[in-house]
Amino acid sequence: MKLLFPYIYERYLARQIYAAFGFILFALVALFLFFDILSELGSVQGQYTLALALLHVLLKAPSRISEIIPIAGLIGSIYVFAMLASQSEFTILRIAGLDVKRGLITLGKISLPLIVLTLVMSEWAGPYTEAKSEQIRMKALGSSYSSQFKTGVWVKDRLRDEDGSGPVRPGVRYVNVGKVEKDNEIRDIRMYEFNDVYNLLSIRSAVSGHFDETGIWVLNDVTETRFKEIKQTDPLNPVFSAQTLTHPILTLESEVTPQILSVLLISPEKMSILSLGRFIDHLQENKQDVQRHSIAFWKKVVYPFTIFVMLALALPFAYLKVRAGSVGIKVFGGIMLGMSFQLFNSLFSNVGMLSAWPAFMTALTPPLLYFLLALMGLRWVSKA
């Protein structure tokens, strides 16, 4: 049966869903920011005033919004469909020709602006304001970025000549950075260089360093110890000599950029798709494990489209009769459904990482299963 006045009903549904979505999103974001402010009050001291703490938390709002959008879409759409069902409006739409297929197509159109909003918040606004937020806090507290390890950040690099320049040669360099400060400054640097058979070639330590405009690290107060094997007649009893050098300033070519160091200090789930892609390339070039970052990358790619899955999960609630439950119970069921999706999505990602499953399938399986659940629910309620 052909639906009468399709554009009128689509605009009506979109207006209702967007209004409910906006209200619930605002409420959830305000709730999470309130708890963030409470946890931040313990850090208020000296130049880090209450106003700066509030600004620090508010700048995290775009990241919070990107996390909450799917759940807000699910709860808001369930509320709208439940209200339409209680007032028999959805029954009128069904009589006018709104079937399951057309309903899913309509929800796909309604979800497009929300998908764009999620991409803007998670890929541009979120990372930018998150960086600004951390800069404000760090400047006020006079602290530096540091990793969860007491020994600082460890990263693998390619080996070059003894002076730190020239083409890449067989071997590996392990870099340890104690602190990453503002303006691309680093402190407490240590480097260990090995040849292709993992013989130790040199150990460098530097008090500080910075990344200049030409893409070179400039290290200050460097102490370097070089090891060389002395030729002996007995290959089973090698003898090495050590030479210690000091350099007030030492320039060093490296593939470890400030962007890579900043990536190491945050979880992959909070990185943008472009940052994850660049870091995965770096890990692959250095033959390191990329499973966690690959799963995070594909989850970020798939994540905006989970909004359509959430709206599809809400559609069966429109077919439930009024006597099947009140609007409040349906909304509560939607909250539980959204929480179950988040828990299952996180659990499946951890299992996929431990089991070394393909990253794309690990990221795609949870929303695909819940979309199939939505289709099964639609088939069941439409025949009831």
TrEMBL record:
It comes from the Bacteria. InterPro entries: LptG, LptG/LptF_permease. Keywords: Cell membrane, Membrane, Transmembrane, Transmembrane helix. It is found in: Cell membrane. The chain crosses the membrane at residues 12-35, 68-85, 301-320, 327-344, 356-378. GO terms for biological process: lipopolysaccharide transport; transmembrane transport. It is a multi-pass membrane protein. It comes from Polynucleobacter asymbioticus (strain DSM 18221 / CIP 109841 / QLW-P1DMWA-1) (Polynucleobacter necessarius subsp. asymbioticus). Its main location: membrane. GO terms for cellular component: ATP-binding cassette (ABC) transporter complex. Signal peptide: none annotated. This is Permease YjgP/YjgQ family protein.
